[in-house]
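Subject: mismatched residue count in predicted assembly?

I count 802 residues in my input, but I want to confirm that the predicted structure covers every chain. Input:
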Amino acid sequence: MDEDFVLMKGNEALAEAAIRSGADGYFGYPITPQSEVMEYLTAAKPWEHTGMVVLQAESEVAAINMLYGGAGAGKRVMTSSSSPGISLMQEGISYIAGAELPVVIVNVVRGGPGLGTIQPSQSDYFQATKGGGHGDYHLLVLAPASVQEMADFMPLAFDLAFKYRNPVMVLSDGAIGQMMEKVKFQPQRPRMTDDELPGWATTGKKPDRERNIITSLDLDPYRQERFNQKLVEKYRKMKEEEVRYEMFQCEDAEYVFVAYGTSSRICQKSVQLARERGIKAGLFRPISLFPFPENEIEALTSHVKGMLSVEMSAGQMVEDVRLSVHGKIPVEHYGRMGGVIPTPEEIVDVLIQKFIGG
Amino acid sequence: MTEEIIIAGFGGQGVLSMGKILCYSGVMQGKEVSWMPSYGPEMRGGTANVTVIISDERISSPILNSYDSAIILNQQSMDKFEKTVKPGGILLYDGNGISRHPSRTDINIYRADGAEEAAKMETTRTFNMIMLGAFLKIKPIVELDNVIKGLKKSLPERYHHLLPLNEKAIHRGMEIIQEIHVAEKV
Amino acid sequence: MADINLMDIIKEKNVVYKKTKVLTDKVMHYCPGCGHSTTHRIIAEVIEEMGIQDKTIGIAPVGCSVFMYDYIDVDTQEAAHGRAPALATAIKRLLPDRYVFTYQGDGDLAAIGTAETIHACNRGENITMIFINNGIYGMTGGQMAPTSIEGMRTSTTPYGRDAHLMGHPIKMTELVAQLPGTYYVTRQAVHTPNLVRKTKKAIRKAFEYQALNRGVSFVEVVSNCNSGWKMSPVQAVKWLDENMLPFYPLGDIKVPEK
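Triage response: the counts match. Full output below for your records.
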């Protein structure tokens, strides 16, 4: 028996973890399947104990711009939404990337396009990892695969956001948001004091410094290009330092499933089922989707005969997997869409059909 | 040990909370657990189901399409989930409102008329605990002590005065369960 | 008549007016005669006089005044088009002892950012909102604004604004005055010395009220856009008096109860 563990939905765990991360503010707008986040926060009333602000905005557009303002003031701020809401936020996210502001955005993905479904999906991979809004930029993207990781990734996301002055997205989905598992929380981190706020933040111009300006505007093309180069350098550094992944029975694997989030959980079962049928299967699970673990995937080509990218999408991450292996081995895709979740059995069948035959 | 369970019925029958209590009991026993509900508009009055997994090991897929055990509380769920029980697995159902009884011969079938029994207790909301008791009688995957602890942890404190009643309901379920069919050896 | 030496006049004891230190030395890019420069100066003077430069955070809009941060020497954030009230909401809630003001034009505040304007006002955010209304989109080259008056010629209403085709001009200030979250709502102008003094008093109040924590203080400044209106500064001032002010009458719309 372990009294330290509690049973919680992924959405609730991330809300509790946000409070414990020493977050200063949450700004959001309700949307299924992640409304539990704000419901949990408003019930927990963190403003009474940690001082964290929680505000239901008039729209996702307003919410993301509240993040801009709050992060510009040097504070740890976050929002959560689901696919259609994240689309509405894209303009703001682009400005946040352009103004180099540290924010945390949680996307509990549902199927699309349009209003689509409220069931879990992974169809926002491109949007999350390739930019999403206008201009040359990237988010740092973390993909949790359990309720525990929903909790663990909150302080991590804030730390990475501030380390790089860059928006960080936690890319989850309806399944992980809605499921309950046991979870253990980190102790409460203190919020930053006024003195600890970053020097670049708009906190009021003190006589001993120049005024701080938070903007993404530069009309001089050469200066703007230098700024773009700075961003490129930042993303290169992320690739060096922030690649995260997990491998499961890859050591002797002849075939490897590449899957993140919910799909990776299902594929773990598929590995077991495949091995019961005498197929040496393994699972490579990218945890950071940007930066993508391309070198680690390429390294597997030394002994792996083929890879199957399993996604709840029409085939998005598969492009990054293919780029990673440089044509050395075949990479196939298997996806279910619209909120349909593939079963462990059908994934094994697809693996056999695509690579082994029979 | 890994036990993969589907609990299915109408919204309002306590399907999700039965799953939650079972999970909490597992946590109390030091197990890994996962609780994956159907969600969305169907939660509001329609059918509800939850996949519960209790295991000694890290749980892989929280979403399944075949189960070791099914706890079935209405006809729609019978139609949907009877076929998903693994051969040799368990199907436990409440007879109330069931017009087409399970017909598979390769699974173990049990019946507990929980709804009827709940009507005899102080509140019909004991229904899900009666069914849980019946299930634990045939699949004692968690100890009763831990179920009581799990109940305590999952019920808000203002309902703690109902703990003895819930415990009574669990025992009642253990008493009323009937064996309908024993799986044939394949 | 004795020769007058200019250097005898330019002396500290003779100073009747000087540029506030809260304005930078950067030459403003605004067209001669534009109300933005005057309003910037007023805001900077109020900040200096109240001694709150180290506690003030400004939000610049998209539009001609996007570069407000080049001129007013306070910590400033540049917002996406229309979203200044959302930024201000978060900043003020996270730093409640600071003075936070937004500065927006008519397209920013009354068209693309209408939702943010209405909801910040309705929540009663404890901020100062400055609204420059010149009835035209200056920066993009003189297109129709939500506040362009009927009959007004712009590059997208070359035959004059026809309310049946293009809708009616919106009186945002009267609208927000209806909301319980606004504390002080007023309409001013800056094209005559007298009006400049009145506007300064209004803006000063709008900043001072933040200390009371009673909600939004909202100051509209009816202004001119000589370039967009295709007029000389003198013609523009006359046109403003004769056409804008009858539709947008000056004065307080909502004042704190005594």
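Chain A touches chain B through 26 residues (CB under 8 Å). Marking this ticket as 'not a bug'.
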